[in-house]
Amino acid sequence: MARILSIQSHVVSGYVGNRAATFPLQLLGHEVDVINTVQFSNHTGYNAVRGDRFSASHVLDLFDGLQTNGLDAYTHLLTGYMGNSDNVRAVECIAQKLKHKFPQLTFVVDPVLGDDGALYVPRELIALYRDVLCPLATLVTPNQFEAELLTNTKITSLYTAKSACDELHRIGVPNVVITSAVLDSASGDHTLHLIGSELCLESGAKHQFAIAFPRLSGYYTGTGDLFAALLLAHYATLAPQFAALGALARACELATATLAGIMQATKLHQESTLVNVAANLPRGSRPNAMVRGFELRIIPSRHLISNPTPSFQSFSI
Is 225 an active-site residue? Predict the structure, then answer.
């Protein structure tokens, strides 16, 4: 059982950030404590959002309370949406303190920068993630756009995806998962690829792999947060069982199976609402009834979390 500190966003209603991560981690048998970088009424896909962004001093004060009371015996650290450079620096401080106390700390960084060519955060965070958090990380989980920003590599094929992974290895990250990428192929936009790469820092041995899975149409939010949590949960369980490389690929198969199942359940639920879904609607212009229909069906799909059946197999690249 892992003891996990998760630092990311929080919403009162819906499933993104810590709301998407906590239940799956707990259901898979791990202890989870959370520090929220924001508390919003709902995610930003809705037409209105209320709430507050928390300062780095707030994040550090909460962690100081944990330290003071001896409640900081974590084996794993998970980070998601930071929002500003001060919070990235706060996470750097927390990660260093946890590594000092427990050198074997597994640090999973979901570098939430943006998606589909659009940044969600100030551009200065790209360099901070690359130069500050990535060298401390055990595993990073960027999407295609984020991996391109972090490595200055245009990802159009498995070859260029491998190059991006190698650049993140060079920065100091032993385990890389590009969670979803559209590659130039005959299947076009209907297929996504996950690309993973695990590097043994001691021997230099490396295992690179990919998983192909169908792309579902719709406006899903929180999928990256959910996937990072699922991946951490399975990797924490599997890593001690593998004497050599291979745990990351298996963890990705399990996490992908769950995520694909939950997204399909969400799609079916949204269709049952009979709310029309128009294409290419920007954030802030999507009808709230439609957005609500696409909230991830995590609780009704808990059997897919606790008992995933891998339907998408990894293959070496």
Answer: yes
